[in-house]
Write a structure and sequence with these properties.
Strand 5, helix 3 and strand 6 form a beta-alpha-beta unit. This protein is of the alpha/beta class and about 375 residues long.
Length: about 375
């Protein structure tokens, strides 16, 4: 556990994390049991990413759906064997088998399901009787948060246990148009207060808290303080956790974060129909130069993927990158990935974030002396 600081615990339903940090679920294969359990052991919330989780199964190509379910069960159980902390699962609604992933997560008793990349309007219907699994949709606007609350109340008589607001500085696929990504009106600083107002209205009306989690581009303890000051109960961070020893990606994947500069972070057009943020490399340059050609889809893993017109397979590219094969793929990354300078342990990272938060909190209480006239 990190040293004591002014960080306030994060409570979601009946579970409380001593450290109000959620490690973002990063596919394909970047956050599995290794990273998630290490984060949970430090008092934060560790998250396994379901996307492409069966990549190492022998029948991944021929039996994609069952391979993913089998691997998901194994990763959840492995993580449970490594920690008594809080574990979450990230499931993209765009996954063609999201329903099976949800069912498996409930059967395995995961603590929290985080779901985005589309509105998880029907997520509660997969909940098993007596389940204590918490549900946290990931949204990019107050309107989306309100829509989910309204739908869940009407159809399932329940509300989200938490809401994650992911802004346009996040890594990977983004829930914004290319124009919105750099528009201040869509900055996370603008989104958080609006979502808090929307969600708080439901929380007050039904007498139960719905914590709002800020995500996307959060890098320092000072950033954590900024967004908790705007009403967030905690933050979600992905990029910082890639550059840890415990991250499940290949060492060369992590080193790419260390080696890149500001100009290396680019916005790409993904085959799934969303813009994405990644680290520029020769593979992406070849795609941009038209050197990649459409192919036959081996997975049908993303329901929104226009594979008949795409010059590459997003699943294959991300699997290759996770394994360090960058001649066949590329790494997703957040807007601040260029600020990474070293690979550290999860323990050290969380301690540094707590210390930085403490410094920001202390400096905010210091007032300049008023000179007498």
């Amino acid at each position: 556990m990190p040293h004591a600081s002014r960080l306030k615990p994060l409570t979601i339903g009946d579970v409380t994390a001593a450290v109000p940090i959620i490690q973002g679920g990063m596919g394909v294969g970047i956050s599995l049991a290794g990273l998630a359990s290490a984060v949970a052991n430090e008092g934060a919330i560790g998250v396994i990413a379901a996307a492409g989780i069966g990549m190492n199964e022998p029948d991944f190509f021929s039996n994609f759906l069952e391979a993913n379910i089998r691997a998901l069960r194994r990763e959840i159980r492995k993580a449970r064997s490594l920690t008594k902390g809080i574990l979450g699962l990230n499931v993209m609604m765009a996954n063609s088998n999201h329903d099976d992933l949800f069912r498996t997560a409930f059967e395995e008793g995961i603590d929290i399901i985080f779901s985005g990349a589309g509105l998880p309007l029907n997520l509660p219907e997969y909940r098993t009787p007596g389940s204590r699994t918490k549900l946290a949709p990931i949204v990019s606007s107050a309107r989306a948060a309100g829509l989910i609350c309204k739908r869940w109340l009407r159809k399932y008589d329940c509300l989200p246990d938490a809401v994650v607001v992911e802004g346009p500085k996040a890594g990977g696929h983004l829930g914004f148009s290319e124009e919105q990504i750099f528009d201040p009106a869509y900055a996370l600083e603008a989104l958080i207060p609006a979502v808090v107002r929307e969600v708080d209205a439901y929380a007050a009306a039904y007498g139960r808290p719905i914590p709002v989690i800020a995500a996307g581009g959060i890098y320092t303890g000072r950033d954590i303080r900024t967004f908790t000051g705007l009403g967030a109960a905690g933050v979600q961070m992905g990029t910082r956790f890639v550059a840890t020893y415990e991250c499940d990606a290949d060492a060369s994947f992590k080193q790419m974060y260390v080696d890149t500069g500001p100009e290396g972070i680019v916005i790409i057009k993904s085959p799934v129909g969303m813009p994405g943020r990644a680290i520029r490399n020769q593979y992406l340059d070849d795609v941009g130069a038209g050197m990649k050609k459409p192919y036959k889809c081996p997975y049908h893993c993303i329901s929104t993927c226009d594979y008949t017109n795409s010059p590459y397979c997003i699943a294959h590219a991300l699997i290759s990158a996770k394994k360090g094969r960058f001649q066949s793929g590329f790494a997703f990354a957040g807007a601040n990935a260029y600020r990474v300078t070293e690979i550290v342990s999860v323990k050290k990272l969380i301690a540094e974030l707590a210390a930085d938060y403490e410094m920001a909190a202390v400096s905010a209480t210091v007032r300049p002396a008023i000179n007498p006239i």
